[in-house]
Input
Amino acid sequence: MRRLFGFALLAMTACAADLRIGIIGTDISHVPIFTRILNDDTAPDHIPGGRVVAAYKGGSPDIVSSRTRVDGFAEELRAKWHVEFVPDIPTLCTKVDAVLLESGDGRIHLEQVKPVIAAHKPVFIDKPLASTLEDAREIARLAREAGVPWFSSSGLRFGQIATTMKYADATGVTVWGPGPMEEHHYLDLSWYAIHPVEMLFTLMGTGVEEVTRIAGGDRTSGSDVVVGRWKDGRIGTVRVLRPSGPYGAVVYRGKEIVQSPPNVPYSYVPLLKQIMAFFQTGKPPVSPEETLEIFAFMDAAQRSKEQGGKPVKLR
Output
């Protein structure tokens, strides 16, 4: 009861003043972009209601994209936006009302979110939620037992394709998007292909029971095709493009096939609006159950790949 009262009080506070937001990890591009959108009230894409006031730098020395960007993004937050940097996550939690867990390395999210959950702060966990299905489930368990609201999502869930092409009568969906890999993440789809995978689930909904993955090329070239069979017989397909490629989707309806236009623009604003609404209400726009099914889907795809493309049931 006390926890529910605490989140209600947080929502009341949000109406009276800006939420104090903390960032964990300054090694991905979302960090300076989110901070600018929230802290610059003169920007045309400014979202009111909260400001980034504190951060914990973090970083992963064995991931190139992390170690080459973490200091630069941290300095931008410090110099341009006057964000206070703290030595550890428990200290961060004493200074903020809500947390953006932005570390690019999904392997460390479980350990980084533990003190946030212990402090009972609502938290958005940026992609990838974790590097394994087991870690994803443990994050969900800890948050559930503590009564702490959280969610994780790709911004594509709230983008043009996912919000304009969702049909109740869809009999199947094919999506595509880039999928570079990171060697330390066991679920290799989670590193970047999480974006088209999440788009598939947004358009199809939950209920997948079996996954088949056909892998071609290697980590730097070629593509993967991941096919999911839903319990009601519908088929959803993800084509992962490497080294890069556009995003897109085709939705199969009873008497119509709908395809997304080329070069659909992307904006961080819809995702950040959802995050701010979540911080203010404690109500996640994506359920933990759906996020865990997405990870079970990628886990089955990984096991199918390891078994030479055999169909694999979700765990």
In short: The chain has two domains: 2-126, 155-265+295-313. The chain has a mean pLDDT of 94. The CA atoms of residues 118 and 146 lie 8 Å apart.
